[in-house]
Amino acid sequence: GAVVSQHPSWVICKSGTSVKIECRSLDFQATTMFWYRQFPKQSLMLMATSNEGSKATYEQGVEKDKFLINHASLTLSTLTVTSAHPEDSSFYICSAGDRGAHEQYFGPGTRLTVT
Amino acid sequence: GEDVEQSLFLSVREGDSSVINCTYTDSSSTYLYWYKQEPGAGLQLLTYIFSNMDMKQDQRLTVLLNKKDKHLSLRIADTQTGDSAIYFCAESIRSSASKIIFGSGTRLSIRP
User: Is the backbone peptide bond immediately before A40 cis, with ω within 30 degrees of 0?
Assistant: First the structure.
C-alpha cells in the first residue's frame, strides 16, 4: 500500500517550453501533496504544499507563476514548469500524505533537463 | 529556525554496524524520520520515531532519540552492500501540518 507514482520519470525539453509533471497516489486518498526539488548531491527542498481543491502554498523564494501547481482530485497533483530554463533542470519529487496520517510517501521522482 | 544537520559521508566495512547521526533545532518536532534514497530514485521511508519515544527497533534498524540534545541516530546492524545509499534525517514541524524538513543526507558506502 501507500504507493505514489510520478509521470514522466524523465523529460528533456527546450528552453522556453513548459513541462507538466504528474503525481498520483495509487491506493489512498491524499488531501495534501508536496513538491520538492533536489539538485545533484543535495537535499530535498520543499517548493510547495498542494491541498486538494484549494490554492497551493509556496515556500519562500519559489515563483508561483513559474511553478504552477494544481490538485484537482484526491489522487492527482500536477506541477507545470512554465517557460523552462536550463537552471530549472533538477530532480522533482512529490510526496503524498494519507488522510489523517503523519507519514509522507514519496514518488520515484522526475528528472527534468532543459536544453 | 528549522534546521536539520547530518554528516555528509560514512564508510563502513561490510558486516559491521553503521551509525548515522543527525541533529535538529526545532524542539516542537512531532515525528523524526529516516529516509533512504538510492541513486536516481525517490525516497523510501525506513522508519520513524515519535518525539516522546527514546528508542525504536525494527529488524536491523535501531533509532535512538535524545530529545534533550536534539540528537537522532540510525544504527544499521550487519551492514550489507545493498545498504549503500543516501540516508536523510527529517523532522515534521508541529506548527505546519505534515511539513517535513530534511537534512543534507549522509552518503553511506560499504567496504568489502
Answer: no
